[in-house]
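Note to self: the last two entries modelled the partners one at a time, which told us nothing about the interface. This time every component goes in together.
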Amino acid sequence: MQDAALGDALDAPNEPHLGAWGLRLLALTKGFAVAGGIGFIALVLMSLVSIVGRKLASAPITGDIEMMQMAGAVAAAAMLPFCEMERHHLRVDFFTTRLSQPAKHRLDAISHLLLALVALLLAWRTSIGAASLREAGEASMMLLWPVWTVVAALVPSFVLLALAGFYNAALYVRAAGSAK
Amino acid sequence: MSGMTIGLMMFSVLLLILALRVHIGIAMFIVGSAGFLIMNDYQSLPLLAALKNVAYARFSNYDLAVIPLFMLMGQFATHGGLSSALFNCVNSFVGHWRGGVAMAAVGACAAFGAICGSSLATAATMGQVALPELRRYNYAGSLATGALAAGGTLGIMIPPSVPLVIYAVLTQESIGKLFMAAVIPGLIAMLGYMIVIRIVVTLKPDAGPAGERVPLATALRTLAGVLPILLVFLVVIVGIYDGWANPTEAASIGAAACGIISIINGMRWQGILNSILGTAQATAMIFLVLLGADMLNSGLALTQMPAELASWVQSSGLPPLSVIFAILLIYILLGCVMDSLAMILLTIPIFYPIVMGLEFAGMAPADKSIWFGILALMVVEIGLVHPPVGMNIYIINRIAKDVPVMETFKGVLPFLASDLLRILLLVFFPVLSLYLVHTFGN
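The predicted structure of the combined assembly is written out below.
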C-alpha cells in the first residue's frame, strides 16, 4: 500500500517489469518528455528577453504570448506519454487495496486500456481538427503562424500515449494471467 | 430524464469507475463525454466536433502554462541543493531552542514553499536535508517525521501554489490576488506548526532537545546565502500582483532565477535532466486531469446541474455557515481517497456557484470568491497528511526508514489539530485572507 499510495509503480515489487519493448518505449517517451522540458526552458528564456525588452526599450518580442500558448501546448502534451510509462498518472487506490494481486492487475489492465483508447480518440479527433484548420487556412493573430501545424504537433504525443497505454494494458493482462 | 438526474448519474458513475482504479483524468473524460452525448440526444456529431479542439484549447491556455513553469522552478530548487541552504539558515537562528531543529525544519519548509508549488517536492527535499539533523540531536521519531510531513504541506499553502492556479482558471479569479491572499494564512500555518512543536516538547522534553547555539555572525552569513531565494519569491509574488509581469512571465522569471542560483550552487547536467524529468512527470499528471476535467465540465454544464444545485441550496434556507462546513467536510472525506488537485478540479465547478449564491455577513462577491479559494486550498491540503492517502507521510517515511508509519501518523496528529483550528480561524475571520488583497489593492 505504501508504494501504491506514492504511485511509484516501477519501484513496487508487485508490479510487472517492463520488457524489451517497454524499455524502448520508455526511452522514446523520455525523449519526448525531455524535448518538452527543453521547450519550456526555451520559452522561459523567450519570456525573459521579452520582459527585459518591454521594460527597457518598450519592445517586447512580437507574439510572445502566442508563442507561449502554442509551444507550451505542444511541450506539455509531449510530457504525457512518459508519465504513463512510469505509471504515474493519478488514480484512486483506496478502495482496491484489499483485492488480490491478479484482481488488481485485471483492473489495471482495463484502466490502461481505457487510457489508450481515450488517447487514440484524441489523436484521431485532434488530427481531424488540424486538417480542418489547414483547410480554413487559419493563422495566429500576431505571428501569422499556421495554427494547424501546432495542433498537428500534438498528435504524435497522443499516439505515443496510446502506445504506452496499450503496452501497459498488455503487461497487466499477462501479469494477471501468470499470477494465478 | 432531467438534466439534474443525468448530472447526478454522471457523478455516481464517475465515483464508481474511480474506485475501480481508472485514471482520474480518463474517468472524468469518459463520464463527461457520455454526459455530453446524452444531453445532445445521443447525437455523436456535437461530441466529435467538441473533441476536435478540446486538447489544443486546454493545453494552450495561457494561464495554465504557469504550472509547468512553477514546476520547473521548484525542481531546480530541489535539485540545486537550495533546501539545505534554507535549512541551515533557519536552524542557525532557532536551532538552540528546545524543539528548535524541528522548528527550523518547518521554517525551512515554508521558505522552500515560497519557491516551490508542490507539497510532495517540499516534503521530499526537506526530509532529506532535515531528518539526518533531527536524528543527530536525538529527536523523537514521531516528532521529526510528523513535523516534516506537516511542514511539507506549506509547499502548496505558501504561494506559488498550483491548486490556486487551477482554482483561478476554473473561476476566472485573479492568480495574483489569490497568491497575495494565501500569504498570511500560509504564515499562520507555519506559526501554528511551530507552536505545536513547542507544546510537544514542553510536554515531553526528551522529544526535542535543543541544538547548538550558532554565533550570530555565522548565522547572518547563512542568511546572506539565502537572500537570493527570498528575492525570487518577492519578485514573483509582487510582480504578479503589481501587474508588471503576468503570472506566466513571473513564473518564467522565477524558473530562470532558481535555475541560475542552482547552477551557481553546483547543479550540473544530471541535475538539469532530473529537473526536466520531474517537471515532465508532475506536469503530465496535472494536465491529463485538466483535460478530463474539461470534458467533465462541458458535460455537466449541459445538464445545468451545477446551476440548479446552487439555486436549490440558495432557496433551501440552509444557514450559509452550515453549507460551508458541509463543503469543508466533503473535502476532508474526499481527501481520504483522492489527490488534492483532482479534488479541486472535480468539486469547484459544483461548489463555487453554491458558495457564490450564499450570503455571508454582506461579504462582497469578489471577496467571497478569494476567501473560498483559500479555504478550499487549506482543506484539500489536509488530505496530504491524514490516513489513508497521506502522501507526505509516506514520502517522509521512505526517507526515515527506522520510524514506523504508525509513529508518523501519531506524530502528525497534533499538527492536524492545528490545521483544523486554522481552517476555523479562516472561516470566521475572512480578513486574514483578504487583508493583504485589500491593503495593496488598486
